[in-house]
Design brief:
130 residues; OB fold (Dihydrolipoamide Acetyltransferase, E2P); 5-stranded mixed β-barrel; two-stranded antiparallel sheet; elongated
Amino acid sequence: MEHAGLEGVVSKRKDSKYRSGPSTNWLKAKCYIIDEFDLLGVEREPGKPAFALMAERGTGRYLGAAFITLNREMRERLWQRVQEHSGPAPKVMKRPATQWVKPGLVGRVKHLRGAQDLRHASLQDFREDS
């Protein structure tokens, strides 16, 4: 799957017939990859999961949001870095619950292979750009 660049593979039980809706007879094995992206900001709203807003490295083109699934210590370290790198909101993006950052933070994101934008993405780690 990975060498062919596929998003995943659908498999089914030999004797099953297609029916719409969830079923254990048809399964999709998804293919994920990990890439690095520029961190644009962090979106945090009370009672909702936090997201890291990610952009293509070097271009600033927004690619999507990644769930922040880091452990508590790393989440606190991320929030501290976001506060230190705080910057103005991009003119084209209106997201009121977002803390925007200046360029310089890079996130490692696990995401579904085969899409132009981030899908089923989660932030795995981050670093300062050197």
